[in-house]
Amino acid sequence: MTTGKKTYQNTILDIAEALKLSPATISRALNNHPYVKEKTRNDVMEMATKLGYRRNQMASGLRSNKTRTVGLIIPRVSMFFHAEVITSIQNDLYKHGYSLIICQSNDTVSMERELTETLYASRVDALIVACTLQTVDFSHFDKFIDQNKPVIFYDRVPVGDYKATFIKGDDFEGAYLATNHLIEAGCKQIAHISGPLTSNLYQARAAGFLKAMDEHGLPVREEWIFHQELYHENAFRAMEKMFDDTTRPDGVFADNDTSAIAAIGYAKQNGIAVPGELKIAGYSNDPRTSIITPSVTSVEQFPNLVGKKVVEALVELLSQEAEGLAYKTEPVIIPVELIVRESTAIN
Amino acid sequence: MTTGKKTYQNTILDIAEALKLSPATISRALNNHPYVKEKTRNDVMEMATKLGYRRNQMASGLRSNKTRTVGLIIPRVSMFFHAEVITSIQNDLYKHGYSLIICQSNDTVSMERELTETLYASRVDALIVACTLQTVDFSHFDKFIDQNKPVIFYDRVPVGDYKATFIKGDDFEGAYLATNHLIEAGCKQIAHISGPLTSNLYQARAAGFLKAMDEHGLPVREEWIFHQELYHENAFRAMEKMFDDTTRPDGVFADNDTSAIAAIGYAKQNGIAVPGELKIAGYSNDPRTSIITPSVTSVEQFPNLVGKKVVEALVELLSQEAEGLAYKTEPVIIPVELIVRESTAIN
DNA sequence: CTAATTTATGAAAACGTTTTCATGTGACTG
DNA sequence: CAGTCACATGAAAACGTTTTCATAAATTAG
């Protein structure tokens, strides 16, 4: 090798030089600009692949102020529902030429804040967020909103007004369906293991639960309504409390499947027959629900559909761009479906 | 507002102007360059937060040829093992100031190729890969290797020599332990539901299985060794084949838990007692294994440890950088542990 | 007290694109 | 056939940093 040129890293200038054209033309050819001759475009494309050229996103992003990258903040990738949503989002987004930076807040507000900053520094074109259960102040997202960069919330969304796009499940309906189903299966004394009321999810589910109870004129026992982090141990302890009494529930509606599974576990350990003495329903249709014995009735949330809708909205917002309004005024509501299994069978 | 300046997007120049300093000094202050007065640094920091300044990664990356971003390619985020690994990687990486771009190959080679190109275009500083089960040609990663950018493979790694860093589980040992355990529990006729032999994983596990069988002088029936995609239906069909015969296996070692669970399902449907007539062991210690009845013996792979080791190696490689060799010559082997449950209990 | 060195800052170039503006074709219009 | 207009290209500026080089100020050495 005589000319001591750099070994790899081919740029637009290398193509320009090779073809005796200006870098401007190369750029235009690569970006499908209309004013470039068919032949020129072909030449450029050919030379580009020949030289193994790859656009430098840094340079491109700096100049055009677009990164073709979207940031995603979720509590944890290892939660079944979110894992499915991500898979769907990432695959769909890729088809539209966008990359995804996935970040986990570990369900803490401070981390969510930091990540928002980091993603802002990376100048992502948009943000997709399933926020923390404790997030009630959303000002850390203002930076994006102010710059007209779309922010899409899914599943866990801000309550109240906010200049962002909302894609959410029909949590009210889900809870209503499940509770109704328990009642129709014969339950008269139903407990509700729910999450923190800071989140829209559990507000809606609590309401759905109460509506069903109310419609059937069933009394609601305050001590049987739990608002707590939906961990296995918490649910187990809730069960202990409920059953440490002479009047016992004959139905439990849990706001996630981990809690429902914990309830099943408690029942097994204490010789309580499910569904004979106690019926249990969960939420999310986690794969575990169909495997455990007895299998657990649960509410399907269609994570793939959620992902699809998120990307749909995003692509629309990113394409119109200039025309103000970087958000959709109406929330998209994803339907739910009750999957009935053994844990709520009629005796 | 009289001066029609841009509303947000504060840059280093804005700080410079506000403090009557040059942009160079601001940059140095922000990057902890030694030659900057204590007071100056403080002033800069203060003004930076006051103006809500955030470094523009595009510009920074373009100039310094560093993005502080790492690319990750995995088959699917929704696989339990990988979800756990990602969580661990992402959290650890974040502590070192790196972001992660997560991509899914959907376990297809062509997608893996494309994603590698995309991540190259984004000029990520390094690549973490759990490759496809069918990836036998690794030339698409050469672009990174040639430019001395670290490539770290975990779990599914290239067989043979390749200038990259390997973090892998002790698959041979895992299979050996599981098979041994089945034998010691009394099994004499053991089947093996394994994955495609293109992958290092299943080569090693096949070998471990055979070693254990051999050591105990047990015969291996060719028709009971399956190399196939490890899906539920495939495993179910394998079970049908095995049990459609007069001589039936009394033990099944499956290379993942989905297959083991399918085996349990088949046994349940056909009235075969587990562990009475048939003992079953799986691989990965998926949460489902401890929930199903009977619970399934499985091999724990310590995904968190895998993630930790990946980041450890990466940070080391990225820090030495200049000193050639962007890979570790010795693979890191993550130990495994057999988790014994009901499905292999002695009768 | 001067010379050499270290510390602190600024000016300006550089990174690889995209985009505005200018310019030159050739084709169409009236 | 002159004037307008769509097409095709190039020159050069711009994006916001980092970094090299130069220089000034402060410190140390001799």
Q: Give the mean pLDDT of chain A.
A: 93
Q: Specify the CATH class of the largest domain in chain A.
A: Alpha Beta
Number of strands of chain A: 12
Q: What oligomeric state best describes the polypeptide chains here?
A: homodimer
CATH superfamily caption of the largest domain in chain A:
Response regulator
Question: What can you tell me about this protein's structure?
Answer:
The structure is a homodimer of 347-residue chains. With 347 residues, chain A is of the alpha/beta class. Chain A has three domains: 12-55, lambda repressor-like DNA-binding domains (434 Repressor (Amino-terminal Domain), Orthogonal Bundle), CATH 1.10.260.40; 67-169 and 303-334, 3-Layer(aba) Sandwich (Rossmann fold), CATH 3.40.50; 171-300 and 338-344, Response regulator (Rossmann fold). The first copy, chain A, has twelve helices and twelve strands. Chain A has helices at residues 12-19, 23-30, 38-51, 57-64, 80-95, 109-121, 142-146, 171-184, 200-215, 232-243, 257-269, 303-320; strands spanning 69-74, 99-104, 126-129, 151-154, 165-169, 190-194, 225-227, 251-254, 279-283, 297-300, 332-334, 337-339. Mean pLDDT of chain A is 93; it is low at 1-7. The longest helix of chain A has 18 residues, at 303-320. In chain A, helix 8 (171-184) runs parallel beside helix 9 (200-215). At the A-B interface, helix 4, helix 5, strand 2 and helix 6 of A face helix 4, helix 5, strand 2 and helix 6 of B. The first copy, chain A, binds a DNA duplex (30 and 30 nucleotides) through helix 2 and helix 4.
